[in-house]
Amino acid sequence: MAATPLPSSGASPLDGPTTCDASGMAEIHRMFRRSFDEATGLVDGVADGDSAHAQVVAAQLSLVSTSLHAHHEGEDARLWPAIDERAPSCAAHVERMRRQHAAMLVQLTALDAALPVWRDAPSATTAEPVRAALRGITGALAEHLPDEEATIVPVMERVLTPREVEWFARHGRASTPKGQSWNMLGAILAAQPDGGGEWEKKNLPAPVRFFWRRVGAPKYARYRAELEGRTSP
After folding, report:
1. Do both 166 and 182 map to the same domain?
2. Where is this region: Disordered (predicted)?
3. DSSP string of 11-69, one letter each residue
4. What is the extent of the structural domain holding 222?
5. What is the rounded distance in angstroms from the CA atom of residue 195 to the CA atom of residue 53?
6. Confidence class of residue 7 from pLDDT cuts 50, 70 and 90?
7. Is the pLDDT reported for residue 6 higher than 50?
8. What is the pLDDT averaged over residues 171-195?
9. Residues 154 and 187 in one domain
10. Which of 52, 55, 173, 196 is the most buried if burial means most Cβ atoms within 10 Å?
């Protein structure tokens, strides 16, 4: 079914006033696109038998997989029921989102199963299931993310409250594994069109921006060097 920004039937919720800012959806989607688009290249950069490098890359892929799982779990738990109740004319769009989530879960589950095998014994053979899962995920994201941004985000901005939108941000942050917060923040910033400057101002209090620049950004640069198999700066 082709995506359309309007509901499938009935009165359009887009006729109502804006109640919240859901632009954060597209911002986090950029991180998922960039992270999974580069993932196969990161796997290909690991030499056969280089378990140390594979450990770093596998941890990165597990990080973004965990984040995407949580992102979709939050939508399944809170977003679809809210739209079903408050914008029932969007039922066809919501059902399509659910189907897309289910299809992507198959690929994410395959990635989660393949990563430990490759991480512990990196080779062309163990890497292929990882690559296959990543192909499935990037293909699913290419279908799902623009569809959600076109058909769901405008409805969110008319049927959700700011507090409800903030719940999704908190849920995403809570899913970040211990010790990976700077890496996740770095990935989000790097994915924004301007490198993250506007996102920082919009989303981070001044003290957090200070610690990011003094502590987080240098740590993230070292992490990226390890991921890419470069000499750490």
Report:
1. no
2. 1-22
3. S-GGGSPP-S--THHHHHHHHHHHHHHTHHHHHHTSPTT-HHHHHHHHHHHHHHHHHHH
4. 178-228
5. 26
6. very low
7. no
8. 95
9. no
10. 196
The predicted structure's pLDDT at residue 17: 82
In a domain, 18, yes or no: no
What H or E segment, with its residue span, contains residue 129? helix 124-151
Q: What is the pTM assigned to this prediction?
A: 0.91
Q: Are 101 and 72 in contact (CB under 8 A)?
A: yes
Number of other CB atoms surrounding residue 29 within 10 Å: 19
Instruction: Write down the residue that tokens 């688009």 correspond to.
Output: 37
The whole-number average pLDDT for the span 79-108 is: 97
pLDDT at 112: 98
As a whole number, the mean pLDDT across the chain is 93
The answer to whether position 1 is within a domain reads no
Half-sphere exposure of 119 (CA within 13 A, CB side): 14
| 11: confidence class by pLDDT, cuts 50, 70, 90 | low
Cα–Cα distance for residue pair 76/129, rounded to 1 Å: 27
The set of residues, in sequence order, having a beta carbon less than 8 Å from that of 227 and lying 6+ positions away, is 42, 56, 57, 60
Q: How many CA within 13 A on the CB side of residue 200?
A: 19
Do 132 and 45 belong together in one domain?
Answer: yes
Rg (CA), the chain: 19
- Considering the domain architecture, whether residues 47 and 94 belong to the same structural domain is answered as yes
46 and 132 housed in the same domain? yes
By percentage, how much of the chain surpasses pLDDT 70? Answer: 93
Kindly list the distances between the CA atom of residue 130 and the CA atoms of 61, 113, 183, in Å, as whole numbers in the listed order: 10, 9, 21
Contacts of 81 (CB under 8 A, 6+ apart): none
